Amino acid sequence: MKEFTPPPDSASIVSVTDRVKPVTLGMGVTSVHFLGPRAAFVGGEENVAFVDDKGEVTKVAVHSGGILSAASDGKRLVMGGDDGKVVALDAKGEVTLLATDPKRRWIDAVALHPDGAFAWSAGKTATVRSGKAEEKSLDVPSTVGGLAFAPKGLRLAIAHYNGATLWFPNMEGSAEFLPWAGSHLGVTFSPDNKFLVTSMHEAALHGWRLADNRHMRMTGYPGRVRSMSWSAGGKGLATSGADTVIIWPFASKDGPMGKEPAMLAPLQARVAVVACHPRNDILAAGYSDGTILMVRMEDGAEILVRRNGTPPVAGLAWNAKGTLLAFADENGDGGLLAL
Prior knowledge:
mainly beta, about 0% helix, WD40_rpt, Apc4-like_WD40_dom, Anaphase-promoting complex subunit 4-like WD40 domain-containing protein, WD40/YVTN_repeat-like_dom_sf
């Protein structure tokens, strides 16, 4: 990747820090989601904290130990814990036990499908339960690193060591192995269903064009990519892992093959979390020094949401309309910004 330009003087950036409603959660946070009108802050242990638009905090106990994984579709939040349980939390704050691993193994990854199906993993086993409450399981070569449903059809991507597996749970013998050496952790489908991208234990992404399984290498990161977010139209994939937001182009049939990524919002800190706006070509980026910026993808224009000097940003989320941004750092100090 190209040399990064020095960051602009923060005093020259438009600031909306005075419009942020502070939220103190009193617990470490691992991710942020919206369930209906309320922000849901997932803690590292036991609890989820709901925060309404007035900033009032309501905690709900969801696990009897560490919360290891979480996924949300805006209607419910599905989580896996080190208690071997998969639970769902709805917008009213009601908790439902969905599944318990018979061996009480850790639930390392979860995924949600738009039609209500969900998936979880324990060890090398990935399990899908569809709307008819039918359960199907598949063992992959090593511990599952990540899960993602395709946007169309009931198809699950499973990231693991030395590649990823694509699986139609309702079709016997449909598991298809996509090889690439190394440890694959996070996984995501492009919104148009044409590409699959994994984040790796190494400082890189790997992708496959699903029409012909052609490889796409996305390298040059100084650190591991822990956060990925597709732009509203699916034409760009924003990622963490560098001291600038890296956005890979996916508008053409070849995706990012042979193309340079866009690099926006450089700072003297590593990008920790990215969240693209649900409707416009805007993103929010949280950094390792606690800074949060809103960035316009077209020209890189920045708005300061939160100043630096705090622990790393742990979670960022937009509500469905894109009118509210919620965030928190690893210590549980966060905020809400109404746009």
